[in-house]
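Tokens as discussed.
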């Protein structure tokens, strides 16, 4: 069970949440130590005050104190570093930063409720307990009592993690009384849970356990029919609206790092790691590689479930092997740098209906390279090779030509099913317009 990384400020940053309790640094600024201890104590005391007195001011003070306790280690870890996008992404992977987001959400968006304070209370209580126990050596009875409490630390932290997930259910139920305002906080908390899932092993474990429990309920012979039918619908809703993940890490991806029922996955600009076959969940339908990604593909890298596949700016790897791009793909987009000549018929599978060849691809097309399933084709922005009869399949309905394309076109070269040509910010949709366009275009290329 992983614990929250809410220790006193360390000397160096942590890029990825560890599964065990955070290590305590040997030395750091006394002011920050005292501030951290005060913030931890205030979190605990204000939570108890809200429990027994019920004054909303104590609720807000508890969240504020917890946020300060999380911010102090982040500040110390990154003090003096130049602000960059990469640094921001590194900080986001730190559990302290994630829990700051938690505090912000429930400080500004939620109606005060004790359940929102409990995770912070548990984390603070055990951090303080670990500091107090060494000071009680001369009072054996007290030390023994505190040691018994400490023995429950992992269970308590597990409870805190479970609460983070259960709060989501609580928020959904609350929509019936809070209306539109409740929907807003639910959607914001969705995003928070996504981030937590990607970077926190305990959240992954708890969600996996919850998923297994739901499977057992669904398979139980005494499960009511309406519940058995409702579960797949809820799973679908979760996959569409919650687990459309954006993966911000630049670290390697491992098995079970991603939820098994994810619908959409975007690898953001920092990610450039090899993805081994069968590593990505088989539920993914939309897969995007953005920015830096430029790794060799293997058969099985792209799941067979993917329908929409997009490669980012820097991707420039060969796809000349049947099966690298699975036959499930219907929409295929290449980025600006892609310029690997496609020579194998079937490398672009015959399932693809929409194809965009990026910016810099500049190799002659030959018959069969573009499959006869394609109905929308966008040629590369800088494409300068002539198009010959048979290069374009007759299935194409919409053709987007480069603005600077200057080779002659004829009705024989163009697909028989063609209904729309887009060229130089103009769109031609009638046969007469297309014929006139070809005449004018050929005059301009002479």
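Sequence:
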């Amino acid at each position: 069970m992983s614990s929250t990384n809410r220790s006193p400020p360390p000397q160096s940053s942590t890029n990825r949440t560890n599964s065990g309790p955070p290590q305590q640094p040997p030395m750091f600024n006394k002011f920050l130590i005292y501030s951290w201890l005060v913030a931890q104590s205030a979190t605990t005391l204000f939570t108890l005050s809200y429990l027994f007195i019920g004054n909303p001011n104590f609720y807000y003070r508890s969240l504020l104190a917890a946020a300060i306790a999380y911010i102090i280690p982040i500040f110390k870890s990154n003090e003096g570093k130049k602000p960059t996008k990469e640094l921001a992404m590194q900080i986001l992977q730190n559990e302290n930063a994630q829990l700051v987001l938690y505090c912000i959400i429930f400080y500004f968006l939620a109606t005060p409720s004790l359940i929102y304070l409990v995770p912070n209370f548990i984390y603070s209580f055990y951090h303080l307990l670990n500091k107090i126990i060494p000071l009680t050596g001369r009072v054996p009875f007290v030390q023994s009592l505190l040691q018994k409490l400490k023995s429950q630390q992992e269970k308590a932290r597990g409870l805190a993690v479970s609460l983070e997930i259960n709060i989501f259910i609580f928020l959904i139920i609350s929509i019936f009384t809070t209306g539109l305002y409740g929907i807003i906080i639910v959607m914001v908390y969705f995003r928070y849970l996504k981030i937590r899932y990607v970077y926190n092993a305990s959240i992954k474990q708890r969600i996996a356990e919850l998923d297994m429990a739901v499977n057992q309920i669904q398979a139980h012979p005494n499960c009511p029919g309406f519940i058995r039918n409702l579960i797949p619908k809820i799973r679908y809703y979760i996959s569409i609206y919650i687990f459309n993940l954006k993966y911000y890490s630049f670290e390697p991806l491992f098995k079970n790092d991603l939820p098994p029922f994810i619908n959409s996955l975007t690898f953001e600009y920092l990610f450039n790691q090899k993805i081994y076959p069968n590593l990505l969940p088989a539920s993914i339908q939309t897969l995007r590689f953005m920015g830096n990604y430029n790794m060799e593909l293997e058969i099985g890298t792209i799941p067979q479930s993917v329908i929409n596949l997009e490669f980012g700016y820097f991707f420039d790897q060969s796809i000349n092997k049947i099966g690298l791009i699975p036959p499930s793909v219907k929409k295929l987009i290449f980025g600006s740098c892609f310029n690997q000549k496609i020579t194998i018929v079937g490398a672009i599978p015959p399932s693809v209906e929409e194809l965009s060849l990026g910016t810099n691809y500049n190799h002659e097309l030959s018959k069969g390279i573009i499959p006869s399933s394609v109905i929308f084709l966008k040629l590369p922005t800088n494409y300068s090779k002539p198009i010959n009869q048979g290069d374009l399949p007759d299935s194409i309905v919409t053709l987007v030509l480069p603005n600077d394309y200057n080779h002659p076109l004829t009705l024989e070269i163009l697909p028989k099913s063609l209904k729309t040509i887009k060229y130089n910010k103009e769109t031609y949709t009638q046969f007469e317009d297309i014929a006139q366009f070809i005449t004018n275009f050929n005059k301009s290329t002479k």
